[in-house]
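Lesson 9: reading folded outputs for more than one chain in a single document. The general rule is that every protein is listed as its sequence immediately followed by its C-alpha cells, and records are never interleaved. Here is the first one.
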Amino acid sequence: MIVEKSRASRLQAFFARITKFGWAALALVLAFLVVGACTIGGFSSPGKSYFAAEGSSVVFYLDYQTHEGETGASPLDRVYLNVGAMYASVGSDQEFEFRRATASGNYTSGKFISSGMGKVSVGNVWSAGGEGISGANYNWVKVFDFTESGTSVGSSYKLIRITFPCDMLVNEVIFVDEAGQVIPAYVHENDVRSFIDAKYWASYRDLFSGDSRRADAVNLVDSQTLVAGRTTYTNFTQDEMYTLMQIDDILAGDRVTEGSFVADTDSGPLAVLFPLVGTLLFGKSLFGLRIFSVLFSAALVAAAYFLGKELFGKGSFGFLFACLFAAGGLALTVGRLGLSLPVTALFAVLSFLFMFRFFARGIDKAHPVRSACSVLASGILFAFAFAADPKCVFLLIGLVALFAAGAVRFVRAHLAERRALDAATLGAGEGELAASRAQERAALHADYVYGSKLIYLFFFISFVVATALVTVLASLPSYATYVRLYDPNPSEPSTGIFSLLASALGDAFRPDNITQYTASNASSSFGWLIALKGATLFSASGEGTYIALNAQPNLAVTVTALVGFAFMTVYAVLYLASGGQKGAYASEHAPRILRAYFLLAAGALSSVLQFAFTDASAANGLLFNFFYFGFAPLTFYTVWVHDGSAPSKVLGIRMNFSAKVLAGFCAVYFVLFALSLPMYFGIPVAPGAARALFGWTTFINNGFFRA
C-alpha cells in the first residue's frame, strides 16, 4: 500500500510539473504528427519486385473479362508500368519495347507485332534529354492509353511481351480495360497453361518457363493495386527515389547486376536504415517510406520547445519557438518526405541541447558523473548525426565552441572557489583550522581533477570512439550490398569496408544535383539565409491547376529572425565593449540572453557551413532553419524582460507593450502561414490563385516554383 501511494504521489508530482505551455507544446507535437501522418500518402504498395536482366523479356497472358451489360470481353485500354531501380546512369532514357500477340494456333517467332504498341522511353529518375518520362521510378506510369490515342486493341490479343533495356527491378505491370477494371494477368506457366488449347501449349510453354528467373516473375502481378496520380499523396518525389533504390539494393538478395550502382551519396549510411524499417513495416508505400521522417520532424518540434525552455527559462517562449518551427515552412515540406534531413536535424539539435546544458550548468560536485553525462549524450547524438550525414562534421565548430566555453567556466568556477578558500585560510596559523582548510583545499582540487577527467574522457569516448563505431555499424548493410551486387568474389571481397566507407564519406561532401528539382533548386547556402529562393520538391500542372510542394520558409518569420540576429549581435557587442557585467548593458537577464545568442549563433553558423561550398538545394536548410528561427523568440524575450510598461488586459489577458507587439507579429505569421498552405501540402489551385497566395514570396524563379 505504501509503495502504491509512493508511485501515485510521484506520478502526481510529475504531472504537476507540466505547465500549461507544456501541455500546449504536447498538443502541438501531436497535431503535427497526426497532420503529417494523414498527409504523406497511403499504404498501397506494388508488392515484391522482379529482377529483369538487360535484354530479357516477360510475356503476360491477359484474361479479358466480360462485365455486366456487355456482350463481349472489354478490350485493353491502358497499360501502367511501375519500375524500381534501373542500373543505368541517372537521367538516361531507357526504351521498353511492348509487343502484342494472339494466343490462337501454334506460336511462331513472328507472332508478336508492335502495331498499336511499340517502344516507350522512360528516364532513370528523370529524363535529361527530355524524351523520356521523368519521375517514373516507383510510381505508376501510364505508358499506353489506347482510347486517348485513338488506337483499338481487340481482346483477341491476349499476349503482351515487354523487353527490358537494362538490368533493373520491375515492381508491377497493370493492364486496365475500357470499363476501368484491372484485367487479370498471368506470367507463370502453371497459371497460363489452362487458358491455352492443350494441343498448342507445347509451342507456348517456353514463353512462360524459359527464363531461369521466371520463379519471381509472379511479382510483376502480385499486387495489381493501381494508385496513379500527380500529387505527392500518390507519387514519390524524385529525391525519394534514391532512398528507395538504396532500400532495394540492401534487400537485393543474391542477384548480380551490370551497370551503375545508384545510391544517395549526399547522405551517410545511417540515413537509409530508418525508412528501410518503415517500408518493412508498411510496405514499399508512401506511408512506409515517409512515416519515420514525420516522427523525426514531430520530435524536432518537441526539441524546439525543450530548447526554448532551456534557453529562456520560460515555457511560453519555448512554445513560441516550437510553433515557429512547426509552421515555418520547411518542417511541413521536407519534414514530411522520405529524405534524411529530419533524421540528421534531430540528432544534431539534441546534440547541441545537451552540450548547452553542460555549458550553462557546469559540473555538479554532488553528482559529477550525472552532470558530465551531458557531454557524453551530446557526443553520442553527434555520432548518429554524422552517420546520417557526414557533412555534420562542420557542427563540431559549434559543439566544440560550447564545450570549450563550458570547460573554461568550470575552470573559472574552481579558481573562484579556491581563491575564496585561500582568503578564508589567511591568518589561520598552523592549528586545527589551518589543517581543516588544507583538507578542504585538497578535496576541492580532487573534485576539480575528477570533473576535468570526466568531461574530457566523455568527450573522447562519445565524439571520437562512438562516432567511428556508429558510422561503421551503420555502413554494414550498404557494404554487404556492394559486395553482394558488384564484387567479383563476394566470399573474399577485393574492397574492404574501411576503404569503401572512406570513399562514401568523401562522396557525401560532393553532392550531386542529379534530379531536375535539386538541380534547379541549387543555391549557395546564403540563398536560404533570407529566404529569397524556395525549393520545389514536387510539381505538376494541367487542366488549369497548379500542384506543387514548395519548401519556402515563412517570409515574415525569416525577416524577423534576420532583424533579430542583427539586433542581438549589436546587443552582444555593446555588452562586451561596455565592460560586460560591470558595463551599462549589464542586467540580471544578460547572462541568459548571451548564452542563448551563443548557442543559436553557433548552431546557425556551423549548420550553414555544411553546404556553404556546395550547390545545395534550399531544402537542405532544415537544420539551419531551426537555429535561425530561434533568433525571433530570442529577440522578443530580450525586449520583453526589459519592458517596464504597465500591463493591461487584452481579451482578458494581462499583457505589457512588448507582449502586444508579439501578438501582432504572431497574427502576421499566421496569415502568411494560411496563405502558404497550398504550397506546403501540394494542394491543387488555379495558377492565378497560386500567384496571389504565394507566388510573391520570392522573386527568384527556379524553373518550377512560380506558377
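And here is the second record, again sequence then C-alpha cells.
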Amino acid sequence: MKSNNNEEGKWRFTAEKIEADRRVLELLSQTFGSISAAATEIINLEAILNLPKPTEHFIADLHGEHEAFAHIIKNASGNIKRVVQEIFGNTMREEEIKQLCTLIYYPGRKLEYLKASEKNLPDFYNITLHRLVRVLQEVSSKYTRSKVRKTLPKEFAYIIEELLHEAPSGDDKQAYYNRIVETIIATGQADEFIKAICRVIQRLSIDRLHILGDIYDRGPGPHIIMDQLARSENFDMQWGNHDALWMGAAAGNECNVANVVRICLRYDNLDTLEDGYGINLVPLVTFAMETYADDPCTLFEPKIPNEDTSLSIKSRRLIARMHKAITVIQFKLEQQIIERHPEWGMDDRKLLDNIDFAKGTITIDGKEHELLDKHFPTIDPKNPSRLTPEEQELMEKLVHSFKASEKLRQHIDVFLSHGGMYTIYNSNLLFHASVPLNEDGTLKDVEVFKKKYKGKELLRHVEWLMRAAFAPDTPLKIRDYARDYYFYLWCGPDSPLFDKSKMATFERYLLADKDTHQEEKGHYYRLRNEEEVIDMILDNFGVKGDHPHIINGHVPVKAGKGESPVKANGKLMVIDGGFSKAYHNTTGIAGYTLVYHSRGMQLVQHEPFTSPEDAVKNGTDIKSTTQLVELKKDRVKVSDTDKGKELKSQINELKELLFAYRHGFIKERV
C-alpha cells in the first residue's frame, strides 16, 4: 500500500509540474507534435550524447597576422596533418602527405600548381578524391549526419553524403562507389568537388574557435581577420586591450583614435586604416608636412625590418612626420582625459607638466632626464596639454572618419555579438589579461562608474559599460563616461585588460634611460603560478568541473628563455607566444594555440609562418611542437560538455512532453 501511495504521489507531482511548465511544453509541442516525433528526438539526442567531444581551438594575440591566422585555421593547428598521417602514414611517402595536406589547406591554388606538372590528370583526380573522402570520413566521425549535412555545399551535398556513408565493401558497393568518382571526373567537376571537400574538412576539424583578445595592431591585416570571422559562425571572442582601443576609437574617443593612428604609423600599417576602413589620412599628411617640414623626426621612423626596401626614403620621412604629429597630439589628449577623471589615479602620467621646455628635460620620480627630441612647435609650455586650433580641427576630422566607417562599425558589431570580457566554456574560464588582485592574492576592488567591484562582478560591469558606449538607449552622461573609459581599459593600472603600473609610451619614445621604460605588472601576473590563487578565481567565477582551467593571453611567454606557458600545476595556460612578428625576437617562437579534443588538451608551439605561396609551391607548413597538457583516461563525450548539459535538459523536457501526451494533459497535433 505504501508503494502505491508513492507512485500516486509521484504521478501527482508530475502532473503539477506539467501544469507549471505548460507554456514551455505547448511551445515544444509546436515542433514535436506527436508522441512519435518527441520519442524520435529523444533517441537522436541520446545518441549525440555518446559521440566524442568535438574539437575546440584557442588562439590569442593575433595582432593583425592574418596569413598566419588563416593558415592555423586551415591546418587546425596541425590536427589535419595528424589525421592524414594516422590514415596514410604506412601507405604514402612523406612528400605525398605534405602535398595532400597543402591541397586541403589551399585547394584552389594547389590544384593549379599540381595540374601544371601532372601528366595523368584522371589518375591524379581518382587517387586524390578517394584520399580526401577517407580524410573527411575520419574528421566527420565525431558529428551526427545532420550536422555534417549542414556543412556540405548544396551542389555536392548528396554526392558527398553517398561517398561518406557508403563504405566500398563488396563488389557491388565498390563498383557503385568507383562509378561516382569516375562520373565526377568525366563531367569536369573534379576541381570544384575537391575544393568543396577540402573546405568541409577544414570546417569539421575545428568545432569551436575561441579568440582570447588582441586581434588588432602591429600586423598588417586585422581587418582581414575580422572579415573572416564575420563569415564564420561557431566562435567566441574575449576582448583584449588592443581591441578595446579600436572599439573606443569607433565610439569616438579622441585618445583612442590618436593611439590607433600612431600605432599604425609606427609599424607602417596604413593599409588597415586607409584600405581596410577608409580612414582619411590626408588632413594628417597636410598638417604634418606644414608643422614638421624642417624636422627630420628621426625618432619616429616606422619600425620595419632593415632589409625591407619596399618603402622609399621619401615615404619613410613622410610617415615619420605624420607619426610625430599624432604622437604629440596623443600625449596632449591623454593628459586632458586624465585631468577629467581624477578617480582613475593616473596623475603620474601627466608628463607634459614635468617638462622643462627651455632645458629640454623632464623630471620623473625626482630624477631629471634629457629628452631625445626637443622640438615641439605645437606645445605651449604654459598650457602643454592644449591642442592648437589646427590640431583640434585635425582630430575632429579623424574622429568623424572613424565614426563614419561602415566597415569598422560592422566589425565592432562582430565584437559585440560574439565577444565579451570573459567566457566560461566546458569548465574553462577564458579572459584576455587578468583579474586584478591585491598583494596578498585576494580580489581587488576596482571602481567602475562610481562603484567598486571585484572578480567576476568587475568584469561583468566593465563589459556592461563597454556595451553602453554603443547602445542607442544609453543616457548621454553614461555614454560619455563609457566612451572615456575605453582609454582607461587600454592603459589604466587596474584595467583587467592591461593591469600594469603604466603604459610607458612617452618614455620609450623620448627617454634613453631604459629603467623608465619598465612597466610593472599587476599582482595577478606574479601570483598566477600559485594553484590556490587560481582555485580562488575559478570559484569566484563559478567554474565547475573535475578539471577546470584558466586560459589567458596578453603577456607574451618567453619560450626562448625557458618560460613555460603552463602554470599553477596545469590549471592555467598562457597562450600568447608572439604571433606578431614584432614579438618573435622576444618570445623565440611565433605563437601558441591550444587544442582541446576528446582525448585531452594539447598545447601547440609554432615557428614563424613563411607564406601561403611557399606552402602551395613547396608544401611547407608551420612547424609546430605539440605538448600534452592533459590526457584523458577515457575519451570525453558530448555528455561531459556544456552542450551535453543542454541536451540532457532538452531530453528531460521532451520526456515531460511525452508524459503530457500520454496522459492527455496536452493533445497531439497530428
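What the second record shows: The chain has a mean pLDDT of 90.
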